[in-house]
């Protein structure tokens, strides 16, 4: 009779081994046909108290001695495989899977597994894993987040953890930053996984619904967070209607690449599965809404909330709107519907900017994901906002949507029995990730010394002066044949800068949401000698820019940051495009006087006006300090906002559970 599959967490103690038995999460008798976490502990309202409790309950990080022992075990197994052919490695992997099923994921078996994966990578990709990657993969197997600097090989560290989990029989979902990386990583690593006896698949927006269940039955499935979440929502909707066929095999184990992007930046974004509702009169209704909104005056009739992109009618505005709609019938006579619709129309007119929040492609309004800078195909704004923007842009209207079910990444990934992740920028959000998800962060040391040069920040009074400096820098670096990457805030900014470069005769490529289909080709050429690339946040995460021949000897890639981000984490992502894996590189951050000060702080705006009145001698340095202080202030605000949202979402979910409903 086979023993139950377990994960022993063996802790070295004076040469003896203690074992804490934890079940391996997979479909079966113990966890059911669709394993998922259904119970969560009640959070304490006080953030500091919840953070303290999370630290006490979090998985302990291995000591330096335990890490050294694990690495020594991997190196010893690696020596034993030297000279062995790939057939022997494949046979050893089959035997190891049987031992995992009986003994569980003990450290010596994980070390042997990693040595087999290393041998496969050497055979198929001519890559040898270094100690930082081995440690990262090992730590992710036990519900931790790993901070590993950009360029240190996070993709292979994730592959290590995914392969080890899959060989133990766990269905593994590898969540990557975008569909380009989903297709790239799944295709590149498929031969490695196949040699280990594992099947792998990739789910993208183009994947047909009939193929998804087959792909999710693979041992390892690569996908984006949004595709995975929507497939889970479809499973829930189908189960509620009595269907037995499901896409996923449960929520057993997720490994999230760029974890801070999913778990922090996009955590509260509503993911709504909806159905279409026929409404023949919607076009006329939205034209009327925009017409009435144009008759209202800022400050007098409405107030704009730039931070949350909402417009609210004042008392005078409510009265004026009632007067304007006096002779209009239908929904305009209902006060609540009238005021909500006008609020959305005002937001569409004043707070959503073409080229920054959306673009028009083939007569369709396509949302731009603010975190990644990519076109979010298939995503629409709800409550009629999308149709109002389509009306404003003279595009055909999409049909109105009726919400069938919804969730957020924050609530969805909390349902996984085992979740882990990796990113180069987790440290700033360590408190949030621990308090909300119970995931501790472990920082991995650099494999090679960091050779990145961070130049002093510069400040410009206008955008025009800033673009002029960028063009001059591009011309100077082009004569040196050094590649240049320029990060901008939006599609519109990237196109304006592109015009300046074209007028100056600088050949360049533009990577933004309009050219996302050409991303692979643009990224492949961005590190070549003399290349100039203008990009939005699309180049900020998961982009590996490889240097061309002799470029390292010229100083490597130079990065110019022309962005104003809410968090230092996002700045560091763009910094990380250069000086990867011990290569040289440099970074320059440019500030513009009009950037970085939203209505979150009237104090910051008063300070800015005071600095502008002073002589220009001390202005740049003091402005940089003020801009960074404003950034920290926004980070604190977002952290507090996210914690309140988490509490509200938890209590809402409890109420739904008591009512017999779910997300």
From TrEMBL:
Top-rank taxon, per record: Bacteria
One Pfam family named in its UniProt record: SecA_DEAD
UniProt entry keywords in alphabetical sequence: ATP-binding, Cell inner membrane, Cell membrane, Cytoplasm, Membrane, Nucleotide-binding, Protein transport, Translocase, Translocation, Transport
Domain Helicase ATP-binding: 135-295
Record GO biological process: intracellular protein transport; protein import; protein targeting; protein transport by the Sec complex
TM spans (from-to): none
Keyword flag Protein transport: yes
GO annotations of cellular component type: cell envelope Sec protein transport complex; cytosol; plasma membrane
PANTHER family per the UniProt record, alphabetical: CHLOROPLAST PROTEIN-TRANSPORTING ATPASE, SECA INNER MEMBRANE COMPONENT OF SEC PROTEIN SECRETION SYSTEM
Name this polypeptide is given: Uncharacterized protein
Native species: Noviherbaspirillum cavernae
């Amino acid at each position: 009779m086979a023993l139950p599959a377990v994960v022993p967490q063996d802790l070295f103690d004076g040469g003896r081994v203690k074992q804490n038995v934890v079940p391996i999460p997979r479909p079966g008798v113990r966890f059911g046909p669709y394993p998922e976490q259904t119970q969560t502990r009640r959070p304490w309202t006080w953030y500091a108290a919840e953070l303290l409790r999370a630290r006490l309950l979090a998985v302990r990080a291995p000591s330096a001695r335990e890490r050294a022992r694990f690495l020594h075990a991997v190196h010893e197994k690696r020596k034993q495989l030297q000279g062995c052919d790939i057939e022997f490695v494949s046979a050893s992997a089959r035997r190891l899977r049987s031992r995992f099923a009986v003994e569980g994921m003990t450290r010596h078996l994980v070390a042997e597994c990693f040595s087999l994966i290393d041998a496969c990578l050497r055979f198929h990709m001519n890559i040898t894993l270094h100690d930082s990657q081995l440690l990262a993969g090992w730590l992710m197997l036990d519900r931790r987040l790993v901070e590993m600097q950009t360029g240190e090989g996070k993709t292979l560290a994730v592959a290590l953890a995914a392969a080890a989990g899959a060989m133990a029989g766990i269905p593994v979902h590898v969540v990557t930053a975008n569909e380009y990386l989903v297709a790239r990583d799944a295709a590149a690593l498929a031969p490695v996984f196949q040699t280990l006896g594992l099947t792998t698949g990739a789910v993208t927006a183009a994947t047909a619904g009939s193929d998804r269940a087959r792909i999710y039955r693979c041992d390892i499935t690569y996908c984006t967070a949004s595709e995975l979440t929507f497939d889970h929502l479809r499973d829930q909707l189908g189960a509620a209607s009595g269907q037995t066929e499901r896409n996923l095999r449960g929520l057993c184990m997720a490994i999230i690449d760029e974890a801070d992007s999913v778990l922090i930046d996009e955590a509260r974004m509503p993911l709504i599965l909806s159905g279409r509702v026929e409404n023949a009169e919607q076009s006329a209704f939205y034209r009327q809404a925009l017409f009435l909104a144009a008759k209202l005056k800022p400050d007098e009739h409405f107030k704009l909330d730039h931070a949350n992109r909402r417009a609210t009618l004042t008392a005078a505005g409510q009265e004026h709107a009632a007067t304007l709609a006096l002779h209009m019938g239908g929904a305009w006579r209902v006060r609540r519907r009238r005021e909500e619709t006008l609020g959305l129309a005002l937001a569409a007119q004043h707070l959503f900017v073409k080229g920054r929040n959306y673009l028009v492609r083939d007569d369709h309004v396509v949302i731009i994901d603010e975190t990644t800078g990519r076109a979010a195909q298939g995503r629409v704004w709800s409550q009629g906002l999308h149709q109002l923007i389509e009306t404003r842009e003279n595009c055909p209207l999409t049909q109105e949507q009726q919400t069938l079910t919804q969730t957020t990444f924050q609530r969805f990934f909390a349902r996984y029995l085992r979740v882990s992740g990796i990113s180069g920028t987790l440290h700033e959000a360590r408190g949030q990730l621990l308090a909300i998800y119970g995931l501790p962060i472990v920082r991995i040391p650099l494999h090679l010394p960091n050779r990145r040069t961070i130049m002093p920040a510069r400040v410009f009074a206008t955008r025009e002066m800033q673009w002029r400096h960028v063009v001059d820098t591009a011309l100077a670096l082009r004569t040196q044949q050094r590649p240049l990457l320029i990060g901008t805030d939006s599609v519109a900014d990237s196109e304006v800068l592109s015009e300046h470069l074209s007028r100056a005769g600088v050949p360049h490529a533009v990577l933004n949401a309009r050219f996302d289909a050409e991303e692979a080709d643009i990224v492949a050429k961005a590190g070549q000698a003399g290349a100039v690339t203008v990009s939005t946040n699309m180049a900020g995460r998961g982009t590996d820019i490889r240097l061309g021949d002799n470029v390292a000897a010229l100083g490597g890639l130079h990065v110019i940051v022309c962005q104003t981000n809410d968090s230092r984490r996002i700045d560091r992502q763009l910094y990380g495009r250069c000086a990867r894996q011990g290569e040289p590189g440099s970074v320059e951050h440019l500030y513009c006087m009009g950037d970085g000060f939203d209505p979150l702080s009237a104090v910051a705006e008063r300070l800015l006006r005071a600095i502008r009145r002073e002589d220009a001698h001390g202005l740049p340095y003091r402005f940089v300090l003020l801009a960074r202080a404003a950034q920290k202030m926004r980070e604190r605000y977002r952290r507090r906002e996210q914690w309140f949202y988490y509490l509200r979402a938890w209590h809402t979910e409890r109420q739904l559970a008591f009512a017999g409903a779910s997300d």
